[in-house]
């Protein structure tokens, strides 16, 4: 009980210093918790083909295309319930800095992907309008588009057979989805795109397969790639979520960023806490000498100092992780809407890592103060500092 009184008395005697240490530790653990949550969510994208229900087939060669005739062969493969395809379409509206993009798709696209919501009359208008166009609510809001408008888009890659790069579309519908990143995409009729483009006819950018058995995803993917193994257009097939993970990895190296930022945060926290503790030991050398004179042993005094560091790190760490848990819902919701990163929660593993990190920090910052206390001597009333 005497140690407890000494511990709380010391922490309460310097409230400003204790508060700043708690704030520093809490901020560090909050950032580490958010980084850990984001890393876990990003790593969850594409994990396990066994859970896949869609596959995507793309050309092995960067910027390549696949023959349209491959669709029939894929559709007849065992385990494939339905196959659809697309081709990218990028351009600008009115000005070069107003970039828009999307895909030319057949009607089967919207049976494989059912997350697009529009009024029935807009679906019917799109089906019956050859030059029809669909756009997400986010893009329509950004450019002020209205259903029924004529939308001219200057394509950046596809010329029309008449020599013009300006494609004229009729906006037939504005869809909404659960994810905002998908509300920035255009969809145009495959038949209109195929008939009008000057080059690349008879090719697609990618195939998407709806499969019957999720556990057979790996086997089906290998069988699809075997169809074109010795052809001029070899393919790479994998889970749709795995392709998303590959796309995320191309944007930025998540592991490297988290490692570098986490290392910087950890070193800063060690320097701050270690410096404060070392100064505290120097400042209280007289008190520790008095405790020695009162027959307290070195390990008892060291335990007191370590307990101070442990309380600060534990309270700050738990508080920081709790704040991270409260903030991560909004953070992951943003990444879900804009990048398709799955949402989640701070799991037991993250709390366990936080505990291990707390113990490591306490041990690291206690080495120098413990050494000074052990070598603190009193002789003839003089305190060796």
Average pLDDT over all residues = 78
- Unreliable stretches (pLDDT < 50, length at least 5) are 379-385
Query: What is the share of helical residues?
Result: 40-55%
What are the secondary-structure elements, in order, as H or E?
HHEEHEEHHEHEEEHEEHEHHHHHEE
Question: How is this structure best described in words?
Answer:
It is a single chain. The chain has helices spanning 2-13, 15-44, 70-75, 109-112, 120-128, 137-143, 190-196, 217-227, 240-251, 254-283, 285-293, 298-339, 348-374; strands at residues 54-59, 66-67, 80-92, 99-105, 132-136, 150-155, 166-175, 186-189, 203-204, 206-211, 235-239, 378-379, 382-383. It is α+β, with helices and mostly antiparallel strands and 385 residues long. The chain folds into 2 domains: 2-46 and 252-383, no CATH class; 49-251, no CATH class. It has a 6-stranded mixed beta barrel. Strands 2-9 form a two-stranded antiparallel sheet. A hairpin with a 2-residue loop joins strand 12 and strand 13. The model is unreliable at 379-385 (pLDDT under 50).
Condensed summary:
The protein has 385 residues and is an alpha+beta fold. It contains 13 helices and 13 strands.
Essential attributes:
385 residues, 18% strand, 13 strands, two-stranded antiparallel sheet, single chain, alpha+beta, disordered C terminus
Give the SSE layout.
Blueprint: H1 2-13, H2 15-44, E1 54-59, E2 66-67, H3 70-75, E3 80-92, E4 99-105, H4 109-112, H5 120-128, E5 132-136, H6 137-143, E6 150-155, E7 166-175, E8 186-189, H7 190-196, E9 203-204, E10 206-211, H8 217-227, E11 235-239, H9 240-251, H10 254-283, H11 285-293, H12 298-339, H13 348-374, E12 378-379, E13 382-383
Parallel strand pairs: 4-8, 5-7
Antiparallel strand pairs: 1-10, 1-11, 2-9, 3-4, 3-6, 3-10, 5-8, 6-7, 12-13
Helix pairs in contact: 1-12, 2-10, 2-12, 10-13, 12-13
